[in-house]
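subagent[fold] <- orchestrator: predict structure for attached chain, return tokens only, no commentary.
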Amino acid sequence: MKRKNLLITGPPGCGKTTLVKTLAGEFSRLDPAGFVTEEIRAGGIRQGFEIVSCTGSRALLAYTGLHSRQRVGKYGVDIEAFEAFLARIPFRFPHGFFVVDEIGKMECLSPEFRDLMLKLLDGPVPVIATVARQGDDFIEDVKRRGDVVLAVMAKENREEALTLVRERFGKILAESTGA
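subagent[fold] -> orchestrator:
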């Protein structure tokens, strides 16, 4: 099986999102589609998470003050806003690769997101994504797929991981585009 999907895992704060953003920028000529997750901070304290598409559109994913039946820890998760945001990203159109940050507990509360992830991972276009270190069966199954290369990051190997992941993802893209 061709390993065309690159997943990055590791503890919070080790640089996974920064790595994905860096690679999306470096390979931007291939017109990536997808999103990254950014922290919302107030007074130096994390209050929630916002999702940002490759084209710059934004939506709230989760917030401490958000009243929602869907919760992860202290955060209320806005599944409806997340699914509406996903619907605006052109995942069904050809792109050089897809960016997903992250396949995590909050995002996986959405059945639409889970379905989308399976379609993207099964499709012909490479996916670079961050994934939770631990999760439910869905997350663990995604990490065990035969078409996935799993890179493990830590704060101590941040620079080395960037170099290795950049090299591996470059090879995946070259194989995919025939370049």
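orchestrator: received. Logging for downstream: The chain has a mean pLDDT of 92. The radius of gyration is 16 Å.
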